[in-house]
Amino acid sequence: MIPIKTSVVSGVALSQIDGVTKMLLMKRVKGGYWCHVAGTIERDETGWQAIIREFREETQIEVTSLYNAQYIEQFYESSANVIELIPVFVVLCDANQVVRLNDEHTEFKWCTLPEAKELAPFPSQHEAFEHIWSYFVERPINELYRVQIG
């Protein structure tokens, strides 16, 4: 049997960069690949609290507008022999959002959907980005997806 693990969350930041909607990708030190924000849920933390903390730690973005993307990333992690199920969140940022990376990443880029798919190596990332673009960029955002963080 293959265990299912659900201890990680991820989030995609969206911002108007010079008038164009873009998503944030960062290049990881470990592995050298491009990704969005992700991290492990700590003890006594909810998934949405974890992604807010991860955004602060990795990018210094203070999350004020958080949405449940209504999407679960999934993949098989061969080194641990587990299936990872990762709830995805969307963070709506101020226009021309400033990013200050921690030591987990070497660089960042605000990307259009095609640029993000070109940089990110994993099919599950591409699918998540397409879903987010469809439901958070191409159409009005459904307020039922909003996470109350106050």
What is the fold's blueprint, element by element?
Layout: E1 4-5, E2 8-17, E3 20-28, E4 34-35, E5 37-40, H1 47-59, E6 66-77, E7 82-92, E8 105-111, H2 113-119, H3 123-136
Parallel strand pairs: 1-7, 2-7
Antiparallel strand pairs: 2-3, 2-5, 3-4, 3-8, 6-7
Regions with little confidence, pLDDT below 50 for 5+ residues: none
Count of individual helical segments: 3
Summed over residues and divided by their number, the pLDDT gives a mean of 97
Order of helices and strands: EEEEEHEEEHH
Helix/strand-derived category reads: alpha+beta
Description:
With 150 residues, the chain is of the alpha+beta class. Helix content is 23%, strand content 38%. The protein has three helices and eight strands. Strands 1, 2, 3, 4, 5, 6, 7 and 8 form an eight-stranded mixed sheet that branches. Strand 2 (8-17) and strand 3 (20-28) form a beta hairpin. The longest helix is centred in the last third of the chain and has 14 residues, at 123-136.
Keyword list:
globular; 150 residues; single chain; eight-stranded mixed β-sheet
Summarize the structure.
With 150 residues, this protein is α+β, with helices and mostly antiparallel strands. Helix content is 23%, strand content 38%. The chain is globular, with a radius of gyration of 15 Å.
